[in-house]
Amino acid sequence: MPTPTIQFDRSQAQRLAFLLAQSVMPEEQKVAWLNLLPLMSQDQISRFMSVLEQEHGSYQEVSKALLADLEQTGSEMNQALDRLAAKERQEIEQYVQKLLHGTSST
Q: What share of the chain is helix, strand, coil (3-state, %, to 5)?
């Protein structure tokens, strides 16, 4: 029995290629799926794409959450550095004032 010809438009093929490239599955599995695609029915390909879409969506959500956490951490670090710089500046100003007014304890 010959393999049925699957009608797959260019945008679907591009989307499938994108999803497969973005997938977190190991490269060996990606290659195996690529080798299976010509043997799959349109329904099987659609279900496979649906799974890849779900994976991509989940990955995007995790990435957004991670990015938000990193931005928060960066903001907290910048605030801590600003406080440290202000403290150092104040200590230097106090030291200079002592030197200018001759109130050093030497």
A: 80, 0, 20
Closest CA relative to residue 96, chosen from 88, 28, 36, 55: 88
User: What tens digit of pLDDT does each residue of 30-80 get?
Assistant: 999 999 999 999 999 999 999 999 999 888 888 888 888 889 999 999 999
* Interacting residues of 16 by C-beta distance below 8 A, sequence separation 6+: 37, 45, 48, 49, 52
Half-sphere exposure of 92 (CA within 13 A, CB side): 6
How many Å apart are CA 76 and CA 34, to the nearest integer?
A: 45
Residues whose CB is less than 8 angstroms from the CB of residue 21 and which lie 6 or more positions away in sequence, other chains included: 30
